[in-house]
Amino acid sequence: MGRTDEEIRKAREDWMTSDRFGEVKGYDGARLDTSNGPDLHVLLSDAPVREGMAGWRVFDDGRHVDLVRLKGNKDDQNYPLPADLDWSKYPSVSVWCDRFDVSLGAAALFRA
């Protein structure tokens, strides 16, 4: 189902001016790169980031939020985030392969 030019214009205006979506600011670390894979998602999780294989399968074990399907694995990307999300419950973000239940990259989140 396609959208009209007016619907697209209105959605873009809502995106830029409403408080329905939050924004993550202040991250000045390395880019979170990932390899390509099937069925990739962006997950917020209550699991801590762990190095190596110890961190591959932990991000869906406890509390987590599947934010969106990943657009791709190249270049910068932006995703709308619910404004009412309690960030204190999710100290990490993961690029999650839902098909194989494995993380392809993760980073700790913190308040700036």
Fold and architecture overview:
There is one protein chain. By secondary structure, this protein is an alpha+beta fold. It is built from 1 helix and 6 strands. The strands form 2 sheets. The protein has a 4-stranded antiparallel β-sheet with strand order 3-2-5-6, with no helix packed on it. A hairpin with a 4-residue loop joins strand 5 (92-97) and strand 6. It starts with a helix and ends with a strand.
Mean pLDDT comes to 76
What class, by secondary structure content? alpha+beta
Q: Mind telling me the C-alpha Rg?
A: 15 Å
Largest sheet: 4 strands, antiparallel
Quaternary state of the chains: single chain
The level of helicity is: 10-25%
Q: Characterize the overall form.
A: globular
Side-by-side strand order of the widest sheet: 3-2-5-6
| Count of strand segments | 6
What portion of the residues fall into strands of 2 or more residues?
25-35%
Uncertain stretches of 5 or more adjacent residues: none
Q: Order of helices and strands, N to C? A: HEEEEEE
